[in-house]
Known about the structure:
15 helices, disordered N terminus, transmembrane helix, transferase activity, transferring alkyl or aryl (other than methyl) groups
Amino acid sequence: MSDTAAPNRPAPHPLGRPLTRLRARRPAGTHESPERAPVVGLLLACHPGPTVAVTALTTGLARAAGRDARGCVLVGAAVLAGQLSVGWCNDAVDAARDRAAGRGGKPVAAGLVGADRVARAARRALVVCVPLSYASGPAAGTAHLVGVGAAWAYDLGVKGTAGSWVPYAIGFGSLPTFVAFGLPDRPGPTWWIVTAAALLGCGAHLADALPDLADDRAAGVRGLPHRLGPSGIRALTPLPLLAATALLAYGRPDRAGRLALLGAGTLAAAGALLGGRRPRIPFATSVAVAAIDVALLIRRGTGIARAGSRDVGRSSRQCA
């Protein structure tokens, strides 16, 4: 073939697949902004689903606990910055592994954004997270940063150990602690809400690892889910979630809590009974139990603070 045809070929992508599809669809006469792909890549690399979910959950918990509008904005901004830093840190650390595994769904591996840019974004988000966290008070800020630090530890190496569940437990448990210490009289959280949130985090860790289990194993990751295997994950995931439901149901007993526990137990039992014939059923029922836990956690937000401080939460809500 003549060398004159070479300039017309698209440059090879690092993964061996030229990314020309989007270029072909661009209307004639238009030009793609060189900054567009990195911005899109950064947005995708922050793990937008979990980032939005955790931010919304904690902001809702703050509102239920009695934080005013300003306080809820501060809580949401701090948690958003922390979650952005954790998501970007994860993709920056895993960049080489994702490329080797050919994970085209990962922005860095797909070439949408460079690993260095993602790492810089993670560090900047972490820096922003510090003053936003301490805007709710010293105890609240410290509690939140402990959780963010645990998540960074997971990204930087704990993910590959048998203790991979610990950062999830600390991170989720830190969220109601952050909210409670940010209330007007800094009351601190009730133990059962913190424990329930930590258990919810353990269940989330197991469920979150299942889709990428094979790729992680091939890359040498040996966290707790990878040691358990798919069947072990499906069997174990409902247990911490059901324990969280029980704590939330009986921490402040009422009819809603009893109904939630009954529903969660029914879902878990259905997953166990049907899992042998349909392997995806236990995962689906675990997600449903987790959704019940999240709803119950927000409902219990008025009881997030230790005894003697609930009236403060109610009064601050009335003033909001």
